[in-house]
Amino acid sequence: MRGCEFPREDPESCHGVDPRAPHRHGPLRIYGYMNLSSTGQMPEMEEVDTNESNWLAKRIALISFLSLVMLMSVLGNLLVMVAVCKDRQLRKIKTNYFIVSLAFADLLVSVLVMPFGAIELIHQNWIYGETFCLVRTSLDVLLTTASILHLCCISLDRYYAICCQPLVYRNKMTPLRVALMIGGCWIIPTVISFLPIMQGWNSIGINDLIEKRKFSGNSTVCVFMVNKPYALTCSVVAFYLPLVLMVLAYQRIYVTARAHARQINMLQRAGGAGNANSADHQRNHRMRTETKAAKTLCIIMGCFCLCWAPFFITNVVDPFIDYSVPEQLWVACLWLGYINSMLNPILYAFLNKSFRRAFLIILCCGQKRYRRPSILGPGATCTATQINGSTHVLNGCSSASKLLLWFCNTRPVPV
């Protein structure tokens, strides 16, 4: 019997198979990779090569981006922890204990959470089993919540240091209270992560939906879905309540900083000819001070909200719209939150002059030119006066030294 020739009036008469309709009886593979198109024509080799090249380029770009985020997060947070351990002056400041604990939480995020998320994202498959999926999810919730609560404690610490009198700050921020606050930053996330997730409280009422989403074709997915009660409770404790406290604290800090900048300029005008400057110069200096304070606080709050608000908004909305949020949006929001762990060392440490100097000493093997000079410079003295119970520096100090003394609650050097 001769082979089939096309075109024919009855292509089905040739063994009942029509190569021009490859999907009727299953795909007809050509060269091991290509299918005949619906028109019976073979796809162009250039088109296949282009698609493979685009896929490979996207894969390389994704791997590079995720690797960069993890590497910078590990190095930045390690550098913060080493700097505080090696620098005696940094260890004297209570706020830095919160920063070290924050860096440790972010370091664990980049070591214990990000790599497994990156592997699953790249391979589109979870190969570590259901038990480790629960453990990894619990660690994710614990460590990211701990990071957010540390940011809240830092804002409260700065509020007491700047908006309250120095005596009130010393009474409020005792070593015991600092330890209790840091302990709370770890205990509260543990309660809302491992306990409900390992017990399955977050999946009550949606177990069938979770089981359906665990398997996608031939792939297994580490699914983390939450019911409405857990979504609301976790989001309020982990994000919305800390956000409100941070906004209130930084708003008061900014108002106090503006008022203090005005007081410094007023005292400079009343301090005599040696300290008096032109009115224009004083106004410019005050505006620069207020603008710098505003920019710093806007950067802190802006980055925090930009990184975490999309995830927690999606986390609350998704259960109320029948879990219809696209998977790609979930992944983007989650990794945007992870990026906050990379930014925290920059926001809370690299913008601080004392930390920058400590970093340079570490990275440059302790070169002397980066050693800490005297805060007020050689032979500098300051005089002070009392206004409404607050100590204000008057004579013998630069404006930068005055602000530094005030922000650090350092007593002026007596004449």
From TrEMBL:
MF GO annotations: alpha2-adrenergic receptor activity; G protein-coupled serotonin receptor activity
Region of interest called Disordered, as start-end residue ranges on this chain: 1-21
PANTHER family named in the record: 5-HYDROXYTRYPTAMINE RECEPTOR 4, ADRENERGIC RECEPTOR-RELATED G-PROTEIN COUPLED RECEPTOR
Quaternary context: Interacts (via C-terminus 330-346 AA) with GRK5; this interaction is promoted by 5-HT (serotonin).
Topological category with respect to the lipid bilayer: Multi-pass membrane protein
Name this polypeptide is given: 5-hydroxytryptamine receptor 4
Lineage, uppermost ranks: Eukaryota, Metazoa, Chordata, Craniata, Vertebrata
Similarity comment text for this entry: Belongs to the G-protein coupled receptor 1 family.
Bilayer-spanning residue ranges: 60-85, 97-119, 139-157, 178-198, 230-250, 296-317, 329-351
One Pfam family it belongs to: 7tm_1
Function recorded in the entry: G-protein coupled receptor for 5-hydroxytryptamine (serotonin), a biogenic hormone that functions as a neurotransmitter, a hormone and a mitogen. Ligand binding causes a conformation change that triggers signaling via guanine nucleotide-binding proteins (G proteins) and modulates the activity of downstream effectors. HTR4 is coupled to G(s) G alpha proteins and mediates activation of adenylate cyclase activity.
The organism's place on the tree of life at top rank: Eukaryota
Localization: Cell membrane; Endosome membrane
GO cellular component: endosome membrane; plasma membrane; synapse
Keywords on record: Cell membrane, Disulfide bond, Endosome, G-protein coupled receptor, Glycoprotein, Membrane, Receptor, Transducer, Transmembrane, Transmembrane helix
Example of a GO biological process term: adenylate cyclase-inhibiting adrenergic receptor signaling pathway
Domain G-protein coupled receptors family 1 profile: residue ranges: 76-348
